[in-house]
Design brief:
By secondary structure, this protein is an alpha/beta fold. The chain has one domain: Flavodoxin domain (Rossmann fold). Helices cover about 40% and strands about 20% of the residues. It contains 5 helices and 6 strands. Strands 1, 2, 3, 4, 5 and 6 form a 6-stranded parallel beta sheet that branches. Strand 3, helix 3 and strand 4 form a beta-alpha-beta unit. The radius of gyration is 16 Å and the shape is globular. Pfam families: FMN_red. It comes from Pallidibacillus thermolactis. Keywords: Flavoprotein, FMN, Oxidoreductase.
Length: about 180
């Protein structure tokens, strides 16, 4: 079983901190799960130019392979201009339409204020749905005020991240059970 966490921006640290926290929880709780963290700031990702996803090389090929070989994803995204960052949108553009079929996806969104909480509902979830992902409906929204010195300090946020990890794991296992039962 493989869970991949994506920090969907090349700048800032808040989203990366939340995704790393979640992946660490997974490693502590579920020893059978392999985790991979893809921080877009650490990778040299090409812009999507319309070629077949199998024709990309280097970090872009690595990113595509990791996402498509994952059983579940935790996608972290900051909110830029009331939207997902262009770097994250580019990642989705690189993938084929059904790249996320049968993959369970949990979402973490960070923002400077509560005004942008609907970005996940209006932009990210429709993209994931189009790509056939199984979306964990309750996502974690984290504001700047929930961090102090690059650490999440809001206990409610930490509790919700714990719950998200459990929900992703449980949803993955439920999907696998249903596939076996109705195959």
């Amino acid at each position: 079983m493989k869970f991949v966490g994506i920090s969907g921006s090349i700048v800032g640290s808040k989203t990366k901190i939340a995704v790393e926290y979640s992946l660490n929880l997974i490693q502590k709780r579920y020893s059978e799960v392999e985790t991979v963290h893809l921080h877009l700031g650490d990778l040299n990702i090409e812009f999507c130019d319309g070629r077949d996803y199998r024709d990309y090389v280097g970090d872009t090929k690595y990113l595509i392979h990791q996402m498509m070989s994952a059983d579940a994803l935790i996608i972290g995204t900051p909110t830029f201009q009331a939207s997902i960052p262009g770097t994250l949108k580019n990642v989705f553009d690189l993938l084929p339409e059904e790249a996320l079929i049968d993959k369970v996806v949990g979402i973490i969104a960070t923002a400077g204020s509560p005004k942008h909480y609907l970005m996940v509902e209006q932009q990210l979830k429709p993209i994931l749905s189009y790509m056939k992902a199984t979306i964990v409906q309750k996502y974690v929204f984290i504001e700047d005020k929930d961090y102090i010195k690059k650490e999440i300090t809001n206990n409610d946020v930490l509790s919700r991240l714990n719950r998200l990890v459990e929900d992703v794991y449980d949803t993955y296992n439920s999907v696998q059970f249903m596939k076996k039962e109705f195959a």
